[in-house]
Amino acid sequence: MSYLSHNKAPSKDAVRQLCADSFPSGAPESWRLAESTAGTLSVSAIEAKELIAALHTLSHHILFHNLTAPEQILVLFPKSFHPSLKILITKIMLEHSPTWRNEALSNQISLPHLVEMDWRVDMKTASDSVSRMAVPTCLVHMKVEDSSCLRGSGALSSVTVELSKETLDTMLDGLGRIRDQLSVVAGK
Amino acid sequence: MLQLQFTKDTLPDSVSNDFQNLNKFNEQADRFLHQLSEFAGENGMSAGPLRNLMKSLLLLPHGSLKKNLTEDQVKEDLLTLGVSEDKADHFSQQWSLHYPVLSRLAVGQTLMVNQLVDMEWKFGVTVGTSELQKVGNTFLQLKLVIRKGNSTENVYMELTLPQFYNFLHEMERAKASMDCFS
């Protein structure tokens, strides 16, 4: 990190960009990023890589411990660090924190997410065992994110389910119980 | 009932009731056949011809159920087929008695595609992740058990709270729509 303080003219935007670029999980290993950073800052690729790794560790540390006050972040820097650069980096980190936090939340591991859902109610009027009847039935179609793909890659799998009236009633019973429990938890 | 060749005894009520169970073929075919064999034994006849007799006899209730026949129509058919008056009477009375159950069973056998068999759920709070030490998000996980042909398939999914409330709302609307029809 001291490399940054030794550099005379990285512009504020360059620093900002660097902080953003070093956040993603693949950043410390990316040679491409290291090389482009080396070019921007006029340092060697190895030094750039170390810089990126340091920024990466810093941003993730801030995110993990949910540091929100500038003082909490300023103490992380070594004493000899360039003061205004320290403040600049802190400011950038704090600016990005909410976005990064949301990103981490949406990327966390989970079961496949429900993306979309629609339903229709049909009336069965005949079948091979009964030639005349009037039985309502419900079809529910759910689009679920495919768990084998990367989040946000758009691969969805689809499932259509048929429910009789009794099944739907039972399901609503269960969902109602969930709602009641949720309001108990929320009330605490 | 058609006059039996081997005996002049009137058929006991238990046999009439057996007819009413015809729609439960899958689970109770064995039991039905067993009862037939018992009956054959009691009345001194062999099971084989009795089974064939039953096969033809069962055509009547099966067709009547399919066409939603009334008690009188069933009685009329029986008389046309040559069944004696009192037996036809007895059968058609049993018919009207058991008709609701039978028709419900027939409807229950109607084709259902990807029928939802069971739903399990759990909800909880995410306490922390590898990226964020302290989190406090509520999640809901659903497991739907779906019948596909002869086997079942499990579908797992996770919903956020807003999604759950939306899901619940939509299902209530579906139920309201179904209630309009019944």
List the helices and strands and how they pair.
The complex is a heterodimer of chains A (188) and B (182).
Chain A: H1 2-6, H2 12-22, H3 31-41, H4 45-64, H5 70-74, H6 83-107, E1 114-124, E2 135-145, E3 156-163, H7 165-187
Antiparallel strand pairs in A: 1-2, 2-3
Helix pairs in contact in A: 2-4, 2-6, 3-4
Chain B: H1 13-20, H2 25-42, H3 47-66, H4 71-81, H5 85-108, E1 115-126, E2 137-148, E3 151-160, H6 161-181
Antiparallel strand pairs in B: 1-2, 2-3
Give structural notes:
The complex is a heterodimer of chains A (188) and B (182). Chain A has 188 residues and is α+β, with helices and mostly antiparallel strands. Chain A has helices spanning 2-6, 12-22, 31-41, 45-64, 70-74, 83-107, 165-187, and strands at residues 114-124, 135-145, 156-163. With 182 residues, chain B is an alpha+beta fold. Chain B contains 6 helices and 3 strands; from the N terminus they run H-H-H-H-H-E-E-E-H. Chain B has helices at residues 13-20, 25-42, 47-66, 71-81, 85-108, 161-181; strands spanning 115-126, 137-148, 151-160. In chain B, helix 4 (71-81) crosses helix 5. Chains A and B meet through helix 4, helix 6, strand 1, strand 2 and strand 3 of A and helix 5, strand 1, strand 2, strand 3 and helix 6 of B.
